[in-house]
Amino acid sequence: MRVINKLTKPGDIRRVDLMPDTVRIQTSDGKERVYNLFTELTVVCAWCGKHLGVKDGKGESGVSHGICPECSTKELAKHEAQR
Predict the structure, then answer these.
(1) 18 and 31 share a domain?
(2) Do 16 and 36 contact (CB within 8 A), yes or no?
(3) Mean pLDDT by 10 residues, the chain (83 residues)
(4) Which of 30, 32, 39, 45 is most buried (most C-beta within 10 Å)?
């Protein structure tokens, strides 16, 4: 609760909902704040959708895109063929 008390004045909190990956705080003035607990990005291949791993989201969570080795090889071969 120490973090919540720094973010709001004592007595302002009306409701706190704890979910697996977020905390939702509703204040007495009707405003709602949502805080992400996990800040990981799932990395998937933008070409085939293959899961490539997880990386630090630096405060964000969600999906990031990269390219897997197989798709990279195919795309490089296509590019070389067009030259």
Answers:
(1) yes
(2) no
(3) 50 78 80 78 93 85 92 94 88
(4) 45
> Position 13: which residue type?
I
Rg (CA), the chain: 21
Query: What is the C-alpha to C-alpha distance for residues 2 and 23, in angstroms, rounded to an integer?
Result: 14
Structural domain total, the chain: 2
Which residue segment(s) compose the domain that 24 sits in?
A: 2-36
In this structure, the answer to whether residues 48 and 64 fall within a common structural domain is yes
**Beta strand spans in 1-74 (E):** 13-18, 22-27, 32-36, 40-45, 51-56, 62-66
Please provide residue 70's backbone torsions phi and psi, each rounded to the nearest 5 degrees: -65, -45
Question: Diameter of the chain by CA atoms?
Answer: 68
Q: How far apart are CA 48 and CA 26, in angstroms?
A: 41
